[in-house]
Design a protein that fits this description.
Blueprint lengths: L31 H16 L11 H5 L20 H14 E3 L7 H5 L5 E6 L5 H6 L6 E7 L2 H13 L5 E5 L2 H8 L5 E7 L17 H10 E11 L2 H8 L8 E3 L18 H8 L5 E7 L2
Parallel strand pairs: 1-4, 2-3, 2-5, 3-4, 5-6
Antiparallel strand pairs: 6-8, 7-8
Helix pairs in contact: 3-6
């Protein structure tokens, strides 16, 4: 990946309206009733707005490299629904606290209403258990939680509002796309990835977020001296990450613990997924890197 000072333009792709299943015209030809049904279905489909895929980047093409990036393909993610109270809070507060994945380069000072604060992005924040626990202890830092799952963001939002925590903002979208499209190079003081999906089946390893290309992307978004913190309770994934600790030249692996780390690394609480792992006697392995100056 080239360390460009600009973010490339990545257009979204439109899907055709309506059902894309081919029609068996032989079964309708000559049958007025079937022809009427086909015409009605066609008119109905044409009246529907075109669906849009999430923004998807060809990273190797965009960054002119041959590094490895997650390949999610057609994998689908949970949608979920909000409670009435969550929906009310969402409608009232999302315009101020949240953003969808887009090609907007975020003005951090404007969004948080303060100048010069450090900024940490947490990728895959889930329901925000550790996010809400850590944020009050780093009130001088802008915390941005990135998550695909809307109900998870809604839980985080509710907890932050109840706790009067005002240094958390949220982005709904894929974390790699968010880093690529919405943050300038050398704009972040830290990136956190706590308990990412281990995709344990061998054929799904290509979906893992910790890959050489993502480490390079994170490195370019970190300021010199910025910190990447990763935690996993999956033993084989820990081995996978261990094999990659020195793959990115811009990142210096500091091990764990790192007593002089300039940012909070104590996650304060045990998350739901972390707790499930501990009940199965899983060992938590953590990693810290520093962006080279």
């Amino acid at each position: 990946m080239t360390n460009s000072e600009t973010t490339p333009d990545f257009p979204a792709r439109d899907l055709p309206p309506g059902d894309s299943t081919p029609t068996d015209h032989a079964s309708t030809t000559g049958n007025p009733a079937n022809q009427d049904q086909l015409l009605a279905a066609s008119n109905s489909a044409a009246s529907q707005p075109a669906k849009r895929q999430p923004l998807q980047t060809n990273f190797n093409e965009a960054f002119a490299n041959d590094l490895d990036y997650p390949r999610l393909g057609t994998v689908s993610f949970r949608r979920g629904t909000l409670t009435d109270n969550q929906e009310t809070l969402w409608q009232e507060n999302w315009p101020r606290l949240g953003k969808p994945l887009s090609d907007e380069l975020i003005d951090l000072d404007q969004w948080f209403g303060r100048t010069g604060a450090k900024t940490i992005v947490e990728i895959g924040s889930g329901t925000g258990t550790s996010t809400v626990a850590m944020a009050p202890l780093e009130s001088d830092t802008n915390i941005i939680a990135v998550e695909l799952y809307k109900p998870g963001l809604a839980k985080l939002m509710g907890a932050a509002l109840r706790g009067g925590i005002d240094n958390i903002r949220m982005i709904q979208g894929d974390g790699v796309e968010v880093l690529t499209r919405m943050f300038r190079p050398e704009s972040l003081d830290g990136v956190r990835i706590f308990f990412p999906d281990p995709w344990p089946k061998a054929r799904h390893h290509k979906r893992r977020i910790i890959q050489s290309g993502v480490l390079n992307l994170i490195a370019t978004r970190l300021k010199p001296g910025g910190v990447l913190h990763v935690a996993t309770d999956h033993a084989e994934y820990a081995e996978w990450i261990t094999d990659l600790v020195d793959v990115e030249p811009l990142l210096e692996y500091m091990g764990f613990p790192w007593p002089e780390c300039p940012q909070l690394v104590n996650r304060q609480v045990i998350t739901k997924f972390e707790g499930k792992g501990l009940t199965k006697d899983h060992t938590i392995t953590e990693f810290l890197w520093r962006r080279r100056v």
